[in-house]
Amino acid sequence: MTAPANPLYRLLIALVLAIIAMVLDQRTPWAGPVRYFLGGLTAPIHYIAHLPVDSGEWLSEQAQSRSSLLDENRRLQRKSLILEQKVQRLAVLEAENVRLRELLNSSADLDANVLVAEIIGLDADPNRQELIINKGSGSQVITGQAVLDAQGLIGQVVEAGPLSSRVLLLTDASHAMSVQVNRNGVRAVLAGTGQTGGLRLLYVPDTADIQEGDLLVSTGLGQRYPRGYPVATITSVRHQSGAAFAEITARPTARIDRASHVLLVQPTPQPERSSAEVSDEG
Hints:
By secondary structure, this protein is α+β, with helices and mostly antiparallel strands.
């Protein structure tokens, strides 16, 4: 039996064969098919060897992609909230512009000097129906000025401070004024009930020609309000057997609970009576 070959000798033989194979591969075409066949056999080994690296890179990309998507989602949510807030603000501004245009159109139809004011507060006392506006004596607001919106009378200035004023609403329980039915001229006294939107006519004979839906306008009597302004609309007329007066309720034509801006009208002075008229009456 022959002794096993020296490992160094085997390594030397392998090295020589490798060099010969490299030279033949470079100089002759016979090694091409062999290299192609061996490459096909070793491809799965290379794929398996690189699988951990490729998997790690894929997981890293997926993690980065998920993080990026989450960041983008949070950014879009914040942007959406900001845009929604802007849309809501634009809606508020648009509604306010509509109200202001209505006021301006209404003031153009008035034969009196008017002043636009903004409502800045409400009376905290539930038993009082009052507003606070941002115009006062510094803007030539005086006690007794009529206050209205685009639909009709709201009330009257009862206290004018330097920078703000208090307005007593038509619906206050202490308020009353002279009105007439626009349809036929029947006059009556309109009083507040202390509730928003609540008005009633006082001491109207049961036989008076007043119907549901009739428009009530100011008469100008007493020089408290200018004549001919819309005040209220009749909502109900009830007749009770044997009663001398009818029970009549109305609602203001003005949007008292929704107004944000109002018009102040200078009281219309009554024409002075001549001395001849006075002497004739005497």
